[in-house]
Structures are given as C-alpha cells and as structure tokens.
Write a structure and sequence with these properties.
47% helix; Rossmann-like_a/b/a_fold
Length: 215
C-alpha cells in the first residue's frame, strides 16, 4: 500500500493536467459549473468585481454530493455571490443541469432567453476540472470562445478546505480524468491527449482504491 506522500504525488499529476493556465480576457458572461464546493462562487465574484464580464450564470441542480443541500447548487452559489456583493440583477440562475454538458447547453439557452448571445465566455470550475470544463464547452458550444479559470488554490490548499475528505477529493479527481477520456468517445467533449505519465498515475490511483467516482 502506498503511503500518503506517494498518493499525493500521483494525485498532483492529475491535478496539474487538469489545469489549463488560461489568462483572463474580457468576456460577455461568466458561466459557473455546478459544484459540491461553493468556493467556485468566490472566484466568480472576484472576476465580476474586477470587470472581466458583466453578468454571471450559475448552473447546476443537485448531484450525489449535494442531495442534502436545501437549495440547488446554482442557487447556493448565487447566494454566496450575493453575500459577497454581486448585485442580484447581474446573476442568472440555471437550476436544471445535472452534468457538465447540461451546464453548457442549459446556460446557453438561458442566456438566449434573455437575448444574450455571447461571443466569449469565462467558464469557472474547480482547479482540477478546468480541462473538463474547457473540452465540454468546445464540444457543446463550439462557436463561442472560452477562457477557463478556477479558485486560485494549490493542491495542498484545496485539500485543506474541500467539503469532501481527502480520499473523496482524490477519487473525484480520478473520476474527472476518466471522463476526459471516456466522454470524448461519446461526443460529450472534444478529445484530449493524455500523457503517459498522467494515465499511469490514474491507473495506480484506481488500483489503490480511489475509484469511488468512476463512471
């Protein structure tokens, strides 16, 4: 059995692969993917207040991780943003999406309903899920330009504040890597090259029992 240091080294390989390292650019709207970790709303608030985009869409129903929440993920994150000073009239709430593809499609439809047709968006996810957000947008909304960002946290910082315990968080990162490979074959996302060291780290973590979020 690997020790915690060895497990962290493997998990950080997947974490680093998930990051896109995009530079922020002015955009027409911010779209926040549903999440069990409301900290993504903090990042959306930062970007909004800095003037990178004039409106925020929070998207997400409930998932297995948030079934016990009183409100949907979208409404919960919107409440965080309002508490941090984002005006309610600068927020749109999409509370039906149950996966990343629906986050994109339903947000696009909601914006169109409000006669908003963005040419560029900023998508926000958890750090390790930046790449998944990017490839999903590129597949589901190919005509829009997208910049992806996330809470500016290191692996170690994120693990200390994640609502899930460390094993659960690592399992989620493992599951995201699997989806980057599997969902491309279904057309849900555009394909991505997965380096050998990343896939090897994934396989080792699965063998070590971090398989709770696999499809």
């Amino acid at each position: 059995m690997a020790n915690q240091t060895e497990i962290d080294i493997l998990a950080k390989i997947l974490w680093d692969y998930g990051l896109m390292h995009h530079q922020l650019e002015k955009a027409d709207t911010i779209i926040v993917f549903g999440s069990y970790n409301p900290i993504v709303a903090n990042r959306a608030t930062e970007i909004f207040k800095e003037g990178w985009a004039p409106i925020i869409v929070f998207s997400g129903n409930r998932s297995d991780s948030t079934l016990t929440w009183d409100k949907t993920e979208a409404q919960t994150m919107a409440d965080v943003a309002v508490s941090l000073g984002v005006p309610k009239d600068k927020i749109l709430i999409e509370s039906e999406a149950k996966n990343s593809g629906e986050n994109v499609r339903f947000s696009k439809a909601l914006l169109a309903k409000h006669d908003i047709h963005p040419k560029k968006i900023i998508a926000i996810q958890k750090p390790y899920a930046e790449r998944r957000a990017y490839v999903t947008v590129k597949a589901q909304w190919p005509e829009v330009n997208v910049v992806v960002t996330s809470p500016q946290l290191s692996y170690e910082e994120y693990m200390q504040m994640s609502p899930k315990d460390k094993n659960g968080s690592i399992s989620t990162i493992v599951g995201d890597l699997q989806r980057i490979k599997e969902y491309a074959t279904k057309g849900f996302q555009i394909p991505q090259e997965i380096p050998d060291d990343v896939w090897s780290a994934y396989e080792q973590l699965v063998k070590l029992g971090f398989d709770k979020s696999l499809v």
